[in-house]
Amino acid sequence: MKLYTRTGDQGQTSLIGGRVSKDDIRVESYGTIDELNSFIGLAAAELENKITSEIKEELFKIQLELFDCGGELANVSKTKEGMLKEEYVEFLEQRIDEYTKEAPPLERFILPGGSKASAYVHAARTIARRAERQIVRLMNSEEIPSVTLKYINRLSDYLFAVARVINFRLHVKDVEYERGAIVFRDRDEKEE
Fold first, then answer.
1. CB–CB of 78/142 below 8 Å?
2. What top-level class would CATH report for the domain 21-191?
């Protein structure tokens, strides 16, 4: 099998069910999902510690789901049911809640970084946000399953929570944005 086909030499690429320009928003969307998947792979490669082993397993699961997501975004034929499921979103929400409880309380914005693994996860989070913006643009002109956007939105929140927990477990403090005021308060504290 050859890795090159020469079919894209004129600026077009094949999708499932058609061809489009390589600068099409659909191509941008699934290309950004591929980039996100790569950064998650980098982060997972840094997690060789027993205290982060279940996070590494979750990141692998997410990589598979992102491959499904890219496949959905590359499908213009609408011949098959979407591969992303609501249960994937629910899993992310459950893990976000658990990791938020585990990490120290958050009061100020934090700077991306800390440990190398956490820094990679923060980079992945920003790529997820970019993918989300591109998917919204795509949804403005084409029909995309709503779970796709929901999944990517929740994934960016999950990645934020995971980045903080990785630092916490590795005994690396998050670096707060020191010029900012306290912006996050416990809901009970606000209501008093």
1. no
2. mainly alpha
